[in-house]
Design goal:
The protein is mostly helical. The chain has one domain. Helix content is 70%, strand content 0%. Helix 2 runs antiparallel to helix 3 and helix 4 runs antiparallel to helix 5. The longest helix is centred in the middle third of the chain and has 19 residues. The protein is globular. The relative contact order is 0.16.
Length: 109
């Protein structure tokens, strides 16, 4: 899986440290990686990442909608981590927790 550490670092620093173009590039990297996986839930995550990109490029940002989508992605990512193996499982789980943290939602391990 790609850029775990970079994504987690940006999320922990606060999503406002992520420019729209950097966030978009990061999202597209995740989409490309996830599209290669054949696991339950992956297609939903890819669809939600596409929706997140659309929200980020809207004329006016809808913070509530973005926050809800980030929470959903965090939960979906943690669920996906249960299907990953080895270090990837740990990294996927940490990413899910970072997404929940970024949205102000407590992580449930």
């Amino acid at each position: 899986m790609p850029q775990f550490d970079a994504t987690i670092k940006h999320l922990k620093e606060g999503v406002k440290s992520f420019s729209i173009s950097a966030a978009t590039k990061n999202i597209e990297g995740w989409e490309a990686t996830l599209e290669k996986l054949d696991a339950p839930g992956v297609k939903t995550i890819v669809k939600d990442l596409e929706n997140l990109k659309k929200h980020l490029h809207a004329k006016e940002l809808d913070g509530d909608a973005i926050g809800k989508l980030v929470v959903k992605l965090g939960k979906e990512t943690i669920t996906l981590s249960g299907k990953a193996e080895g270090k990837n499982a740990e990294k996927v789980h940490a990413l899910g927790e970072a997404l929940l943290h970024a949205a102000g939602e407590p992580a449930k391990s």
